[in-house]
Amino acid sequence: MSTAPWVGQSLPRKEDRRLLTGEGQFVSDIVLPFMLEAAFLRSPHAHARILAIDTRAAAALPGVVAVRTGADFAALGPILSDLSVPNLPGVTQRPVFGPMPVDEVLYAGDLVAVVVAKNRYVAEDALQLIRVDYEPLPALLDPELALAPDAPRVYPEWRDNLVYAQEFRHGDAAAAFAQADVIVAERFRGHRCGATPMEPRATLASYTRAQGLTLWLTTQRSHIKRHLLGEYFKMPDSRIRVIAPPDVGGGFGVKAPLYREDLVICQLAMTLGKSVRWIENRQENLANIGQERDQIHDLELALRRDGRILGLRDRMLADCGDARVPIYVSFSMPWLGAMYLTNGYDIPNLEIDLKCVVTHKAGLTPSRAFGSFVPRFAIDRIVDIAARRLGLDPLAMREINLIKTFPHDTATGVHCDSGDFVGALAKASAAIGYADFRRAQTAARAEGRYVGVGFSLGIEFSGLPSQILVPMERQPGFGVASIKLDADGGVQLAHGDQAQGQGHDTTLSQVVADELGVTPEDVKVTAGDTQSSPFAAGTLASRMGGYTLSAALFAARGLKPKLAAIAAHLLQLPLGEVGDFEFAGGYVFPLGDPARRISLARIAETAFLAPTELPPGMEGGLEFTAHFEAATSGMQSTNVHVASVEVFPETGRVKILRYVAVDDAGMAVNPMLVRGQIHGGVALGISNAFQEEFLYDAQGRQTTDTLQNYLIAAAGDLPHIEVIEHHVPSPHTPLGSKGKGEGPTGMAPGALGNAIEDALSPLGVTLTQMPFTPERIWRLVAQAAGRGQE
Amino acid sequence: MNRAITVRVNGTLHHETVDHRLLLSDFLRETLGLTGTHVGCGYEGRCGVCTVVYEGVAIKSCLMLAVQADGAAVLSVEGLARGEELHPLQRAMHDCHGLQCGFCTPGFLLTMYEFLKTPVSDPNTIRAAMNGVLCRCTGYVHIVAAVEQAARELAQMDPDERARWFPL
Hints:
The complex is a heterodimer of chains A (790) and B (168).
Chain A: H1 16-20, E1 36-42, E2 48-54, H2 56-60, E3 64-69, H3 70-73, E4 91-92, E5 104-105, E6 111-117, H4 120-127, E7 131-136, H5 143-147, E8 162-170, H6 173-179, E9 182-189, E10 202-208, E11 212-217, H7 222-232, E12 240-243, H8 260-272, E13 276-279, H9 282-288, E14 295-303, E15 309-319, H10 332-339, E16 349-357, H11 373-390, H12 394-401, E17 408-409, E18 415-416, H13 421-432, H14 434-446, E19 450-461, H15 466-473, E20 479-485, E21 491-495, H16 504-516, E22 523-526, H17 543-570, E23 581-584, E24 587-590, E25 598-599, H18 600-609, E26 623-628, E27 636-648, E28 653-663, H19 671-690, E29 722-725, H20 744-759, H21 774-784
Parallel strand pairs in A: 1-13, 11-12, 15-16, 21-22, 28-29
Antiparallel strand pairs in A: 1-6, 2-5, 2-7, 3-6, 4-8, 8-16, 9-14, 10-11, 10-13, 14-15, 17-18, 19-27, 20-21, 20-26, 23-24, 24-25, 27-28
Helix pairs in contact in A: 11-20, 16-17, 17-18, 19-20
Chain B: E1 2-9, E2 12-19, H1 24-31, E3 51-54, E4 57-60, E5 73-75, H2 88-95, H3 105-116, H4 123-129, H5 141-156, H6 159-164
Parallel strand pairs in B: 1-5
Antiparallel strand pairs in B: 1-2, 3-4, 3-5
């Protein structure tokens, strides 16, 4: 049996039991009386004009309640507003669109019609009876062609195909390149891939005149969606309730945007006066969401002969697809990726020319690593490529260029408040046995075996402060939590960051339990329902560990003076300071005097049921709400990953020998859960880097439409992931804790790409592109050997 | 077209009349209200989260019709615990943090239920046995650890006691 202090213990989760016994509650598990099911008809064409839609046969099918097309939603007007478009320093153009296209589809998978029926089987039958007359139009699929001045425009009213463009300038890059001994330039091409949670989207809307609109949603941010829905449907927020149920099957950013389907389902519920549910199937999930990372970097480093990086230039091009993704408009990911491009390296002079174009593909949606997956691959790779050019060891090259002292402001303006790369890199190199590995590598090469090792560095945000999140998403960076006691002394904690598996209930309970002297089991945590949880931006950007956890701590701490005052009164002690009292074991007592104790239950009973016994003049009730905004413009963690691999040049297969993550969570409230976040993050990164890719054919139809060909890594595809903690407490949070979740994913491609190229270095291979499929590696080896392309 | 079927699910006989084309996964979820069985792919059998034990064998319930299960016995996640007492694998998943969002968890539990009838605690063998179910949260590390723990515990158990944890 565990005892306090709870913080720092690897407690198994409170969330587990319901999920292990089949009692979890996901949106698709909720059934309302007389609920109808919706199914969408989607475009088979990347770009086409809709000439006519005949829905008569579908509407006549028994069991079908309604068939609707874009024209039926046209009166609702455009979705994007100043609330749902990033307000960043660059030049933006805004796509104008409603919930469903009326006469033109812009990617394969775009919405064409929706059927509402008594069940999903009938709804899907009806979809097959809808006749659509399309006029296929040329599809713009290549982001570089989209840049050309004479390129056809995806949105004819725009000046060009640029949804966003910004030039980042810091220091004097021209001088740095003029002074450089060596300039290294490479093109790094990211591939379209992303997060793809195991639970697809689901939306259930219900409307009554009395209650207004109630929406159960697989979402990471119920409050923001409620506010956007209120704006869109011209209803007061008070008439809308958005509920993310206790269980959402993975989010990873994909469940953060407001989606057009949500608006369609809401409108159907309101116009039909029935509850309408839509459960996304995997084909439409793969065709529409979870696609990110589609970037090209023409990256150059200016270097001194001794390895010091003097400057950086990058022409960064992101293929944003149709960009019809409210809140993100598909460009805030590449923007943040550019902001974090230099990452753990101290690069004083830079020029980044970011261009984000639209094409006839699905719009980019956020995915864990948020815009940084490819930038971090590129920067970690080019450092190794430069090291080889200079004849330097990649480890030494990192030691020369990493950020050595904190706080540090990067050239793009990212404030790095705390961290320790020097120590983390030393731990990583010790863990992998770097010197021994190099000796073993030499011996292996003598036997004709190709083994290699690679490092990556990571500056990873721990939440985003309001200074960044307000312009980026018109949302607050603060964390928020409310504590109230029940009349029996039970502790209720409501907060703004509903979980999708991260274990927030358990972690927050540990923090609150220590503060109030109860057990984590005594703390009931709720989030996700706009009716019962305080307003916050939601779960994103590793906010919880830094921001929301601190808010929970301050909420509990904020309640204590009143608890102490009531205790003092009931114990007939002079009214002391809160510091004169101890909170432990469910009791409040004078410091060092547990014999004179009074239970929280008794205090609560007094505050709620017998206010006549409260100190004179004190109000009844027991609750406190805290908003936490760190007093800094950026909280970051510093992390180093190292991987070793063996590559088999005859087949191109790569075997990951070891993967070691040295990670900084500031302090781990629950070390087991922190390890779980790192494992999962790294696994996503490896899966993305090795085997996942959304592929479009020459006509822009997506060929990766099932999990049989969009290949998510199974257990046998992945190595064991070793985790070494290397915490640097944040100076800006009460416990020193930092977020951990978003970051580990972006570490994987750099470490592994470096290891693969290191293994193949006798063959002179340069690896600048993912995924690291056997075919790609084999071709690189074949090309390097002069055997030509085939 | 409808047909009357009788299926024993978690030890209880259910007599239902169902559409011929109703999938076993939908039968469990929508007809019987056993929503612990989840659906994560396009009924193509790849994600594995809908896995149940059918006549002692782990199968993907989205790839089978309810009418095919007529007369058969099925075990779903709701049937693993004995009252309040969790199955050793459920407990190990809890101890080792083998689940995060929990959406895929029933698939792993039922897949490894069959595997653990003959408990093997070698991590590579365990990994290979889990390939039919996908997880996006855990990176599988803690799931492997949980199955190892359960395998060790079951291997040390008296055979009769162990058999009681594997009713199907």
